[in-house]
Design a protein that fits this description.
There is one protein chain. With 203 residues, the chain is α/β, with parallel strands linked by helices. The chain is 30% helix and 22% strand. The protein has helices spanning 27-40, 57-65, 78-90, 104-110, 148-158, 172-178; strands at residues 2-4, 14-16, 47-50, 70-75, 97-101, 119-123, 162-166, 187-192, 195-202. A hairpin with a 2-residue loop joins strand 8 and strand 9.
Length: 203
């Protein structure tokens, strides 16, 4: 377990283990995602589900925004979840987040099904797979362990309001094909200190 006092964004005094080290969204990016999602989501949606909470960076940002009646954060690794809970306490938002340990698809299906009418799902999935670091355009059907379809099909069974945090090289054509109807597809490219970090798309 590490107490992370070195700068990653601006996080200070948070707990994180080796498995979660590279999966934490930089704090300025997490705050911007929370701001953009708060502004773009219909006002009647008051529940935010963070499907891959990791060490809690995004869930904490959502809680800090004050936009959501409740934030539900799901993490399957108990050690990483313990880090996330501690980190929420560091930021003073522990009472605004409900934590769930386990598989996000099972928890959403069996424990959070009633939130669908009022819910938004945010997912920052693992980005594994061939070509993630080398391809100029990343094929989201090859993302591992969950492809784009693996994510969207179960999530959209609960709510049509799904936001994804994806590699910066993600194939936008694949996202457009998944978009509902003729609505425009918002895609935001996040950068920090001159470096491209990721893309976020709200379907």
């Amino acid at each position: 377990m590490k107490r992370w006092e070195k700068s990653h964004g601006t996080y200070k005094n948070i707990f994180i283990n080796d498995d979660a080290w590279f999966g934490v969204t930089p704090e300025p990016v997490a705050d911007k995602i929370a701001e953009h999602l708060a502004d773009s989501t219909p006002k009647d949606k008051a529940i935010l589900i963070d499907a891959f909470a990791g060490a809690g960076g995004n869930a904490i940002a959502f809680a800090k925004s004050g936009r959501w009646k409740r934030v539900y954060a799901i993490e399957k690794d108990p050690q990483v979840l313990a880090c996330a809970k501690h980190n929420a306490e560091v930021y003073g938002v522990q009472d605004q987040i409900s934590w769930h340990e386990g598989d996000c698809f099972e928890i959403i299906r069996h424990k959070l099904a009633e939130t669908g009418e009022f819910g938004v799902i945010f997912a920052s999935p693992p980005w594994g797979g061939p070509g993630y670091r080398t391809d100029s355009v990343f094929d989201l059907s090859k993302m591992q362990p969950y492809s784009l379809t693996d994510l969207l099909v179960p999530f959209q069974q609960l709510t049509p309001n799904v936001a994804l945090y994806l590699p910066r090289t993600s194939d936008l054509r694949q996202l457009v094909k998944c978009n509902d109807g003729d609505q425009s597809l918002p895609v935001i490219h996040y950068c920090m200190e001159g470096a491209s970090k990721a893309r976020s798309s709200q379907l």
